[in-house]
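note to self — DONT lose this again. spent like an hour looking for the file last time. sequence + predicted structure for the chain T wanted, 372 res
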Amino acid sequence: ASMYAAKKGTYSYFELKERYNEKELPAVEIVDMKRELRRGNSSDISSYLRDELQRNIDRGEQSILFINRRGANKLVSCGECGYTYRCPNCSVSLTYHSAKKRLMCHYCGYSRRVDSACPSCGGELKFIGSGTQRVEEELHELFPGIEVLRMDTDTVTPVGSHEKLLDEFRDRNIPIMVGTQMVTKGLNFENVTLVGVISADQSLYSGDYRAGERTFSLITQVVGRSGRGSKSGRAVIQTYTPENQTIRQAAVQDYEDFYASEIELRRLQKAPPLLDRYTVTASGQSEEQVEWASRYLFDLLSLSAREIGSTSVLGPAPLPVYRVNNRYRYRVHMSGNQSAAIRRAISAAIISCSTDKRFRGVTIFADHDPGD
């Protein structure tokens, strides 16, 4: 959106053509994880990244690894009947945390112990997907005796622990730090010469129209943590789609090319910043009532859209995580360039729905260009 505003002349545009320290950008290697699987390596650390980590350890230099998921495993599933542990309050699978040996919901906080065998059929449980804890465990297996610091919301909860961990990483020259988005920006360690992106695909296929922009931003930011001192930096991007345009643009930090391709995609999607997008969400404990309210909202907004002109209405549809803490969530999208008229139409629709006795117990709210 900022680049679009700059291209239109709303913002002034100033390009930094060199890094602040006049050092070259890190040399980036894209690793195809499908090839690693074919070679029999099913771990989260590719053979190339493992060798680069060993090289840094031998030199006494530091490395940062980024994976955008905390916990040990994304889900626990039975290999025989397919049973998975799901949160009783939310429409998500529970994430396994090996440090506490518990399954946890990252939305409502529900937790429970994991069984020794499948509670449905008694079969063997499989631990699938990886988070920061699992990567930390693999690093200890690959490099016995080498200290690894983990930074995610599970390790920085106490007040001030964030700065304490960063100071410890720098002052004690800990060889490897693995973390979530906390390690992608604002860090300046002179002895960090290697950065690894464990799973570049993780944020790329989320279904949000900003998925490409977020992935590009995350990769370019974390790659920039390498080589900020007198030593040259390297970066390793692990992906199952090495041919993906966004990943390749991020690898060479080509902002102009990324903007050109992304703005064309937004034009086809009729998405911001080319048009304003508003979302009206209905939330309640009865899914039937929430869906009914969202259909009522859709009808009201569709009528207003025809009167406004050049305005589209999509939905109603459940959110990707449609139940959180036993409340169901459905939404309607409204897009157009007549911002004032759209806001008035949404306001009238919310008032009409909120005062209708049929939808008692349903909460209605609107967002401009929502974050999910």
